Amino acid sequence: MDIKKVMVVGAGQMGSGIAQVCAQAGYEVILHDINEEFVMRGIGIVMKNLSRQVAKEKMTREQMDVILANISPSFDLKNAAEADLVIEAAIENMEIKAKLFRELDSIAPAHTILASNTSSLPITEIAAATDRPDKVIGMHFMNPVPVMKLVEIIRGLATDDEVYETIEGMTKTIGKVPVEVNDFPGFVSNRILMPMINEAIYTLYEGVATKEAIDEVMKLGMNHPMGPLTLADFIGLDTCLYIMETLYEGFGDSKYRPCPLLRKYVKAGWLGRKSGRGFYEYS
After folding, report:
1. Of the candidates 173, 179, 178, 139, which has an alpha carbon nearest to the alpha carbon of residue 21?
2. Which of 37, 52, 189, 277 is such that its CA lies 20 to 30 A from the CA of 204?
3. Residue of 79, 119, 120, 198 marked active site
4. pLDDT (tens digit per residue) in 239-249
């Protein structure tokens, strides 16, 4: 299977990052979202990232222009008809993803691979919404995409070996390290990371220590680059809650119960960096 043109569905932080790394590797990229404002904001994120690289003299202005020329905007999902690979980076919601994959399945050519950047939802269930479950796979990128090397590659129950090998090879061409993971809730990354963050929130909730102290213990004692509460704000508290609920529902184990304080913050609209306030306040 030969991948030349990639469509990224969802032009937010993750989608724009995926579009950037694919464009940098020389792929033709279609960056899609539901309206022009969202797509142009996503392209703006790419321009900002690349401009930073130019300012640091890690690339030339000419190289930046070539990368940007590889990205074309899309406001019509029918553009999936041109893609060899579609990477979905929409909101972390099974109903929305299943609907999107049904539509993509009806539009994309028979050879097109449909990949999801889901961070916790079952690939097998997403694939079941299509008539090509053998060509559906998980590509879970880490945030921020241009910096982080890991991509979890998740096979669904029916994912074809050739499809896996194609995506593994393509992941390497964009400068990432593919790691094969089986289709369980949260995969590896979030099955381990999110309960740690949730336990840090419980530690704050129960008054064991202040948020600053909890983060400092994990940074200095465990050599983490940022504390778990700072990281939760960076990820988005709504995303953390959704993943914890997915783990709780998927495993039925009380150790994955979301902390009441996490629920309270999300209900208050304190979602972290993106809303200006989470465990910390951001100007």
Report:
1. 173
2. 189
3. 119
4. 999 999 999 99
